[in-house]
């Protein structure tokens, strides 16, 4: 499915624990200084730029197959994904057991662990989704990372 069809199909569907899906707005990368300083409780030393780091280089391997998905709810809390986080989803990767994936289950999108015939939450207070209980399940892509704002 091409990106425009994917996004328009998302806009027509209800969601499970997915609030929004975004595509890349630009092919430009922003490079941010990466300092070599280690935080110390005693002696301070001058900070030197070790390298320049791009979030794209760290998080996005295939820009044309990558989406950003805002998560809602706490079903992946123990995986370190909290309400409001943005996960990076790569549609070009082959999903394997144990991967965190973006899946479509009966017209709703959800982020879960891929298991044998199940999608498992990262929170013991949430229920697994059994493949046999759904009419249609499609694995959309593999979650490769996440981003969170603190301020």
TrEMBL record:
Keyword DNA repair applies: yes
Report keywords, A-Z. Autocatalytic cleavage, DNA damage, DNA repair, Hydrolase, SOS response
Check the record and name the SUPFAM superfamilies matching this protein: LexA/Signal peptidase (SSF51306)
Q: Name one GO biological process term.
A: SOS response
Which sequence ranges form a coiled-coil region, renumbered to this chain?
none
Q: Where is the Peptidase S24/S26A/S26B/S26C domain?
A: 49-143
Q: Which Gene3D superfamilies match?
A: Umud Fragment, subunit A (2.10.109.10)
Q: Which family does it belong to?
A: Belongs to the peptidase S24 family.
Can you name this protein? Peptidase S24 and S26 domain protein
In its UniProt entry, the species of origin is given as Candidatus Methylopumilus turicensis
